[in-house]
Design goal:
Layout: H1 4-12, H2 44-58, H3 66-78, H4 80-87, H5 91-97, H6 101-118, H7 127-146, H8 154-174, H9 180-187, H10 191-201, H11 228-231, H12 238-253, H13 257-268, H14 273-280, H15 284-304
Helix pairs in contact: 1-2, 2-3, 4-6, 4-7, 6-7, 8-9, 8-10, 9-10, 14-15
Keywords: DNA-binding, Sigma factor, Transcription, Transcription regulation
Domain RNA polymerase sigma-70: 103-116
Protein name: RNA polymerase sigma factor
Length: 305
Amino acid sequence: MPSSAAVVDQVRKTDAKAVPVPGRTIDEPEGRLPRIADAREVAPSDARQLSRVFLLRLRSLEEGTPEYQYARNTLIEMNVSLVHFAARRFRARSAGGGVDMDDILQVGTIGLIKAIDRFDPEREVEFATLALPFITGEIKRYFRDTTWAVHVPRRLQELRTELAKSREALTDLLGRAPTVKELAQDLELSEDEVVEGLVAANGYTSDSLDASAGSEEDSAPGRRTRSLADTLGEADFAMELFEEFHTLAPLLAELDERDRRILQMRFGDEKTQAEIGAELGISQMQVSRLLSRTLARLRSGMLAS
């Protein structure tokens, strides 16, 4: 089989849309595409020349034929280096988001295939110029639609990207992390919109509550590390009061108006028994007896329930 350099040399010597292989002549009715042993090994400079020949020929072939499949598959193999080039930009996001690099390359290859199918040779545009936006766009769409741990609206997903770019640029300019106000001015947004975007960005990745909350130094052998669950939240003692209030409410509703009023003045308004007696026109002794009787009744009702 001819090497890629030999094939390219043939391409440069002819303006024909198909390049002959040994045993056929250019004057034959239908010139066949050159056979390339390993399209992935074709040098980028040679791939540009060959891609144009294959793309021109692809438009004249009937879809589904062996020759069409060969031309299309060879174009994919020859230009897969464009996918690797575009994927490098997302290496950091891949590591931070727990995304396998192989998945990114597969998604980028889908963008390459779309570029091959939509390329118009008559526009006289370099194939790489068209293919890179297709590849990058497909990878960005993959990150946007599948890598968020919590679903958020698309506008907030896009705002997260803009905030990341703005923060990086301002950090280089100011020599420190920018404030919310500075981010808002740079992006011409309100501070509330910036805060909303920053909060939404927390939904991009998630960690298990069982994950270690310490650093790598804290996780040295023999040293016990706390999980995230151990550092979040605290005991809410008001929950016990809630249960008690829930039980107490129907018992209070059964009391008469005077008993409820005495309870309100004693425990709500924090009045003394003497003050309560003076307001109700009864003695302090009577107030004490009424309170004792009412409290005993409530206590008995709560224990029974």
